[in-house]
Records
---
Amino acid sequence: MSIFSIFKSGLAKSTTRLTRAVSSIFTGIKAHGKESFNDLEDLLISADFGVPAAQRIAAAVRERYEIGSLSTDADLTLAARDEVVKIVSGHDRPINRPEKGTPTVILMVGVNGSGKTTTIGKLAARLCAAGDKVILGACDTFRAAAVEQLQLWGTRTGAQVVSAKHGADPASVAFDATLASVARQADWLLLDTAGRQQNQRALMDELAKVRRSVGKACPGAPHEVWLTVDASLGANVIGQAREFDRATGLTGLVLTKLDGTGRGGMVVALHQEFSLPTFFIGLGEQPGDLQPFDAEYYADALFGLNSKKE
């Protein structure tokens, strides 16, 4: 299966919902006025694009239509797709990598059930398959199942796991895992953390402590702090991202569970709201369904179009 096919399959529910609604607005109408573009804006808001992004996309399509650069209904869809690409690719960049000989430390954070541990396992599988040395830090010390799950991923992938006894200080585990990754000359250290709600102030402060501990063990680390976002929550994730950013200084996003929701538009809402890149996107249960985020594949799949890149 091609990479674009994985995107299409994973976004199928969102695509069906969006394309039917867009078709109902534009198909069969000879001329489009203000009402059509207001309807488009309302549609995008209802599809979890968020108000700012919905307004921007509708305005861009309307502007191109009014100057005569869009002649067909298909052109209108393509114009919406192009604006989505601009929004979600605006902050693309490579993963921050330190100088050679220092492990790249990625701290994964997020709310309960967002898919952190599974995402770390899938990412470890990807990195180990490329021949890299990977260490997993089990900093979720309050949920025994999380440690067991991470150890299982370690067995599957060949990644080493650093853990501690149940109830240990997460910052201490993060410190030890970071020291171990440096001493063992690992290429990557992926740190799992306990899920927490963004309004749990003490637990959010704990994340800040974890980050400080990592920096003491390896100056400059963590090199990335990624928020795993459950796409099924739709636009509600905006508030989550804002609070986690305040606590940890987010540097990127990983979007999970997009294959099980019709709310794929929330990707656009997040990118419009925050100056953060999305590094990976979860489009299924298998390790290979965790894919590097591709703005064009995403937009083409979302609007039910054939990829221009294939």
---
Amino acid sequence: MITTYNVKLDGIGAVDVTVDEQGEGRPFLLLHGGGGPDTVASFGALLAQAQPARVIRPVHPGFAGTPRPEELHTVGGLAALYVALLDQLGVNDVTVAGNSIGGWIAAEMAVLSSPRVSKVILIDAVGIEVPGHPVADFFSLTLDQVFQLSFHNPAPFRIDPSTLPPAAQAAAAGNRATLATYAGTAMLDPTLAGRLATVQTPTLVLWGDSDQIVDPDYGRAWAAAIPGARFQLLTDTGHMPQVETPDQALRAIWDFAGASSASSAS
């Protein structure tokens, strides 16, 4: 079910957020990366069908042709927006899982310490500065180079952009521009790693062993920056495990969400 929520955000006002909700059960807030909402759509459906889960999947304002208020232009602003969305929905014990920039948003939500968020899962997240392990210069890459760096086996996922209809090409260009607005061309915040020391939410850092956008040591740095965080490496997968190896990602996410709930209840 797709719904547009009018979410009030301090300092910005009302923001329209398009949300796809599927399933019933334990709530998951699933946050997409710079490739847009399609990068988590199939996985959201898989999670909702495979487990008793309510999957809440927003479109970051400005992606997929959705409106973005000019005042909303930072990852921290998106994190505050989604905390307000959870308040409006009235959901508790939420597992927030995000890929790439979605993982960065999830981390910023953890810094905000919403009582509605009980677990955080960072899937090949960008956002921190790790000396010697730079984020790939995404905005200087061709689409084919992006696929080469993003997947363990890029062949099944490659797309020739010239074959896409004009509307799809325009949407992809719009997503790219919106990503640059929120994340900057470097796709990191040099203050973030230090702020993660305050996070108390149980956190899993999930990483593809073949990710060349942000390598596994970058992921280990994420885990080291968050008190008590666990790092888990997924095999034969790249920057988007939810796309390339969804069954492997599903097991890891559900195992963590279940184990965290069990331990917090004991």
---
Amino acid sequence: MAKLLIDTVAEVLELSGAAVEKNGEYLEALVPGDIAKTLHTPEQTKLYFNPEHAKQDGELVTFQSDFVDRLFVLMQGTGNYARLALHNLYLKQSTRSAAEQRFAVLNGLGRALDAMERRLSYAQFNFKYTAVSDEKKEGLVSTIINEQTLAEASDMAVQLGWAEFTETSHHAELPAHSFHDLYAAACRSVESGIGRELSEFHKSLNRRLQRDIGRLTEYYESLITEIRRKIARRSLEGKEREDEEARIRATELELERKIVDQREKYAMKINVEPVNFLRIFMPVMAVNFEVRFRKAVREIPLIWNPLTKDFETLVCQGCAAGLFHFYVCEEKLHTVCADCFKCAGCGRNICRACHPKKCPKCGMAYQGSSNQ
């Protein structure tokens, strides 16, 4: 459940060194002098959160109030980065057999060699988005990425609040990808998340757009119909008919211009910016999985996550999609999805990890490639 504003303000004040007491729907706070100066409040203050109960001896706080803006000023530069380690997590021991049931090599052979406990690092990125059309909508989206595999593990966020943790400087036991690759994976992940967040907003905009276009079309078509009736009623010919037909064309052009204006009015522009970053260290079970294609052999790690109690997906090396069933390419045994293993043009087997721009067999350029 989302945290109430009163609880958020109390937490921020306490982290800033204030002594806070919650009394029903208001807070009493004893604030250090420098913090009180930033917040423009007395050192001993009351904060009310319900307009019906607000009194003159304190300040009313809402999401739109100046106090919240001042609170953001207080928070700037803090909480941008943190790291923690999770403890006392259950690690499933029978992960070898479970891995062979969960994952399948569609054009080769795969088998689990061994499984062992590893400590890995995960990166939680929090982003703020602002969508602007004739209205404005703001929100926050988060994603969690495995720093070793680049797999999305956002489902574990639900369990983080229940886990036992401490602040830490631990390191992972497997090599991590570069921050550039990590950030790119996070951006791909939140793009779909923002799309889901804005789906209803987009539908609302589209309904109003179609409504306004319908009204415009009905109005201008009625003008055109009236002009045509005039031509027929008066049996106009020659220059008079040409003048009226010119009016029809002008009206049609005006309708087209008005529709373009409406589309621009309801066009949605989205701005996304990172807010903060949390690095999470935790134990997992890592299964060493052997993949064979003809005489070629490759070993890849499969990660069983103790928070989600399931395996994390493999990442398609062509488009970054999550995979449980996958193909391996003939050249380097890249793990790829069905779309990245077959050319849509010629239908032959390819590998978009090896050939990211165009099919090596028919030369067709790929459309909408999102490979790493």
